[in-house]
Amino acid sequence: MPKQSLNAVQSSTEFEVAGGGLLDRRLFLKQGMIFTAATWGALSSQTATAELDRESWTKQPGKPFSNYGSPSDYEKKVIRWIMANDDAPGNGVSWTPLHELEGIVTPSGLHFERHHNGVPAIDPERHRLLIHGLVKRPLTFSVSDILQYPMQSRLCFIECGGNSNAGWRSEPIQTQVGYFHGMASCSEWTGVPLSVVLQEAGIKGRAKWIIAEGGDASMMNISLPLDKALDDCLLALYQNGERLRAENGYPLRLLVPGWEGVLNVKWLKRLHLAAKPVMARNETAKYTELLPSGKARQFSFVMEPKSVITHPSFGHRLDRHGLYQISGLAWSGRGKIAKVEVSADGGKSWAEAELQEPVLPKCFTRFRIPWRWQGQDVVLKSRAFDEAGAVQPERAELIARRGRHGYFHYNAIVSWAITEAGEISHVYL
């Protein structure tokens, strides 16, 4: 945030920052009286009581217990949007509705999916994980074997390398945030550190890579550097406290924190230690891009810092003047989010947003900042900074560096234009 803007905040009784009505989040949080019932037009207690008395549901017995909870009937519109191949329905994607969610944890049933040949129905009693190749002792584990090992839990995101790829188009796509950036989700994952079972197998000195293979009909396989496998990867058995769901890799998946989603192999059945990568389809024909220099970009594993304002955004409409809370998500595969800045004037000035705790490495981070809108045309933007010093780039900067042949790892700043009528659209600046 520019120094003069901070000074303006400290000296102003309105706590307003230059740049489209953004408010300093620290002073704002100390002034709870700003958010009064009058501000939001809340009902008086008498009116509210009368409304409740008229509602029949307050006098009727409720529904009985259920064996497994489900969303309220009034929230059933919060769903994943699916795009499948008509000729091969098991091949396609579904997006997490980020624009409908709060906090940082994605419900298991709304976690994005990418399937190549459908979801297999795997009996955990029959499933096996084979570790072989450049090891001293090839090992085979049943699921019950793996469940006996000491486990760890960690909150982290998984993001498809192709997430947000519509940003490479020459014209900005007009769709809700989750259906543009929603091939990214964040969960609590619990399982056994991959390093534990690899060390039990005994790694031979020539081993530099692991070839991971899934148990689905597409026989997904992909190469993972051994150093990463020994660092922070998990054999994941649980998601958000319960056993993995079938579409999320039941009964066993690989978790590779902070790296592109294709490496997080679901229905994991084989780990082959090798001296070289396997050069599978998803690291040659896919996930390899031509750069402006004429060289190809390959093995671009790490997901770079990224942020997006989820509210307000496309699909919302501002229906009044006054105070709003700008909210969004930021994440980076390089570690923790250090800060998020928000602009309400198209990037001319920036204000630092409040980061909601906990702020964890390789995990979604929720940011918030208050904003006063008086009906003017504005452009909202956010940019993320991570603890490794990387900064989310402007779109023009990303294209200059990566060229026009991009498809994967799009992490440019997203801009939302708001008209005097409160209508919101996605724009390029």
TrEMBL record:
Assigned keywords, A-Z = Metal-binding, Molybdenum, Oxidoreductase
GO biological process: one example: sulfur compound metabolic process
What EC number(s) does its UniProt record assign?
Answer: 1.8.2.1
Question: Which part of the chain is the Oxidoreductase molybdopterin-binding domain?
Answer: 116-277
Q: Which Gene3D superfamilies match?
A: 2.60.40.650, Oxidoreductase, molybdopterin-binding domain
- What terms describe the molecular function in GO for this protein? heme binding; molybdenum ion binding; molybdopterin cofactor binding; sulfite dehydrogenase activity; sulfite oxidase activity
| The keyword Signal is assigned to this record | no
Know the name of this protein? Sulfite dehydrogenase
Instruction: Provide the gene name from the record.
Output: soxC
